[in-house]
Design a protein that fits this description.
By secondary structure, the protein is of the alpha/beta class. The chain has 25 helices and 21 strands.
Length: 668
Amino acid sequence: MEESTPAVTPARRTRGQTPRRATLAHPDGGAALDPTWLAAAVEHAADAIVVTDLDGTIRYVNAAFERMSERDRTELLGQRTTSLGTEQSATYRAMAAAVRRGQVWQGELLHRRRDGSPLYLAATVAPIRDAAGHPIGAVAVQRDVSPERSLAEQLALLQQERAEVATALHALRAGATPEATAMAIVTAVAQLPGLRGAGLWSLDPDGRATGLAAVLAGHALPMLGPLPAARVAELRQGARRGPWLEAWHPRAGHPYAALLAAERTRQLAYLPVRADVDPIALLVAVGEDGGVGLADRLPALTVIAAVAGALLGPALRMRGRQALVAARIGAILETDAFVPVFQPIVQLRTRTLVGCEALTRFADGSAPERVFADAQRCGLSLALETATLRAAMAAARELPASAWLNLNVSPEVVLAGDALASVLREARASVVLELTEHLRITDYAALRTALERLGPGVRLAVDDAGAGFASFRHILELRPDYVKLDRSLVHAIGRDPARQALVAGLVHFGARTGATLIAEGVESEAEARALDQLGVPFAQGYHLGRPAPAGHLARRAGVGTVPRGRPPRSRRPARDDEIGAAVNIGATLAAALRAVGITTLAELQALGAVPVWERLAQSQPRLATRSTLLKLAGASRGVRPAGLLPEERDRLKTLVAPGRREAETRTG
């Protein structure tokens, strides 16, 4: 249905009267409006008004249209409306056809401003009729909807961009290494519309920037070496502020200069990759057409950078911490920033010095356990342990010749073999290797083999007995010469029946397996007396002696110290009741020795001096264990031998005689 439009009605002429001006009459017969008022209303209307003839030639535009189109009316009058929107020629044809039919047309027109920018107009076009009602032109009322249209386009672009980013991020996963993760990220970025390449550089805690991955035009790029310090400082400062765009200026000798020039690169986008708050890396994007549209891409790239932070953050932070730790451990090794100290191990009954445990103190005051654990995490544990062992071995030359040397070693050092063997060749005293556990022992057979290669003169101790299941398994699997009671068992043992019962059980266990007990962490005389009464022969702790330089312990040793933990030699036969006390084997085992004919210390020493044990292993494999005569061979060196079973006693009788004859031959 056609809308009614005002019609121009010519004024009637009366004889003798001056003709009146034409008036604009309303079709419903309302009062006519003075054309002057009408013209003013049209001219100052907020909406743009354009009047054309049926051919689309512009006859009038108001001030609002001038403002919207950024053109003067003198430029517009006489032009065809199609010249304002050449992209919509079909739209203008449809509009003209509707006007000729006397219909009102509504729709959206696209014009161009003077600078060529789009001008979107929501238009209502109505025909202008003559007195006969025929269309003779058109009047268009137009409203600028460019802001709404731009917002809609931006929303559509944002939705499209989000879909593209979601697609790119969907397949992203953290790789086995930061480099693998970075390659997945930059590949996804480079595949976004409008981008040709991307790169990722980590901002390391030590002040460097390390290339992780880069792609350009679908090909991976070789990573650059360390960037200049000045450039790294610029990148770090920019990363703290947020994303930014930077012009690319080709520089002679730059590894990427030719590639970026081939891609006509003139601009790069930089986006901080954050973990928590601090930037840990920098994502660099290369635009497809010299950087055109990179600014519009920043929101999407910021989302990708956030995801990159979540994927890369843990690995890069761990790598950064390891790098700092490795640098610290390296500095310790390079400057020998440590000193060995020695804690005395004493015989509880006589309080004489029998051994010294070598410990390490670091110059910066760091806890040794933490430093060695840090070295393990950054792959420098073997180097650090070897260096501290060599230092301990050199310092131990000042120790009393009577004391054995206790060295803490990890399974890794034992399994490495060569480094430890080289250290042990410098030993001037009996050595006990105290096994510490920085890493879980997975192959006891390999560890036993490695220990055997170090030679028969090296004895083994297992630490922290009673502190957990692992230490007990070490004892059962490795059958050590010494078992060190954890300080948790020693603390206040004199008034704790439960601790006393457990230690008594371990004393019995040691007697059956041939392991000698050493109590750790003795801090009071009451603890020392209780341990002695329970049958624990050796101990160490602050009450018995604090860690000190070797020279200090040498001055403390004094006269009468038991040589290397051995009892003093006797020039006369020992009475039957003296054998047990002399070699600290206990009354039960002393009685067993007397039952098989060993009544003097000389006979016991002769038994250990002949190659009886090889013959025993060949003839009686079942008896060639650490719970039999193999332990008796070390009895004169302070090693507690195991109790003898009946079948072991019978076998011992056949071995005593040749051992005694060989000893008499040597002494004669």
